[in-house]
Amino acid sequence: MTGGALAGVRVLEIGGVGPGPFAAMLLADHGADVLRIARAEPVTDALMGPCNPTLRGRACAGIDLKHPAGREAVLRLCEQADALTEGFRPGVMERLGLGPGEVHERAPRVVYARMTGYGQDGPLARTAGHDINYIAIAGALGASARAGERPHFALNLLGDYGGGAMLLAFGLVCGILEARASGRGQVIDAAMVDGAALLTTLIHGMRAGGRWSDTPGTNLLDSGAHFYEVYETVDGGHVAVGAIEPQFYRRLLEVLDIEAAEAPQWEPTRWPELKDRFTEVFLTRTRDEWAALLEREDACATAVVPLAQAPGHPHLAARGTFAEVDGVVQPQAAPRFSRTPGSARPADGDVARALNAWGLGEQEQDALRTAGALD
Q1: Which of 67, 104, 130, 238 is catalytic?
Q2: In angstroms, rounded to a whole number, what is the distance separating the alpha carbons of residues 248 and 301?
Q3: Residue 344: which residues within 8 A CB-CB, separation 6 or more?
Q4: Does pTM top 0.90 for this prediction?
Q5: Residue 130 annotated to the active site
Q6: Which three-class secondary structure state does DSSP give residue 238?
Q7: Residues 23, 25, 29, 31: what is their CA dihedral angle, to the nearest 10 degrees?
Q8: What is the pLDDT of residue 241?
Q9: 370-to-35, 90, 360, 367, 375 alpha-carbon distances in Å
Q10: Using an 8 Å Cβ cutoff, are 241 and 297 in contact?
Q11: Is the pLDDT reported for residue 42 higher than 60?
Q12: What is the mean pLDDT of the chain?
């Protein structure tokens, strides 16, 4: 891989699901040379189906971690790496002989990043879970509910990706920078419960300041306020309103043809009544008609675009936010760099070349295949 802000950085990814591959994708998008180790991955699986865009931008080598020769090959690869990332439950890598102790004995500068749901210690550390469980105990799920309704989750974005993958990638880059200064690697304990909790920092501050109630659906950001809500349109579409600042709220009222005196913004006792009023108004037009009226106004109101339609939204199309990679339309690399732009790239199918570039030559690869340690 060439180009990108992370050109020259090498990351060994021990194959997993969820946040680990997404973090590796972020690094590869920005030029890191990422080599994924995952043996005998099926073409399809129960979760992803026939394609997985989060595996883009890198090669995947099928090395058997349980085979002595496979273990030795991974340790050899670690000698070429700046970082290693793994997503097994605590203790699994140690049982394979590939824990931080073994890796740092061979490669002291490697940043060893561990991605789990509950972390490396604590009562739940070895317990199975998924995004919904991690955000549940972190408080993020309980705070995401309308009045009188059960909590609702935002796909798997908060735990797996926001609190997991993105903080894992951030931690890796921080660790690599520190290792280049100190000459020493370290272990990163990236837990989705910690990351999801971190994402609620502002809400904890609002609560401490008396600006957040523990009753779901009564607050500014949890659907309590009429000016931060989703409204249905006459055609069954929806409009998202986020007019928090006074000037944006005033402009919203002007477009909706509602007198400001009739709709005071910061009187919470009137929020339910005003929400009913907004509901009536938004039901007078279609989603696209409201989008035409509102999206270019400083009213902080936009159409709610279905996932399949997002690539075609005029703003995203103009920015090239989506691209077709390996025949799949998917989001492009983000954020954008002025001198060293990243890019969503196809998966690298030339595993032999990738291993050779990482120091495992053809003869060694042949020996591993003969031993049954390399697919």
Answers
A1: 130
A2: 9
A3: 29, 53, 56, 57, 323, 325, 330, 331, 332, 333
A4: yes
A5: yes
A6: strand
A7: 80
A8: 98
A9: 22, 31, 15, 5, 10
A10: no
A11: no
A12: 95
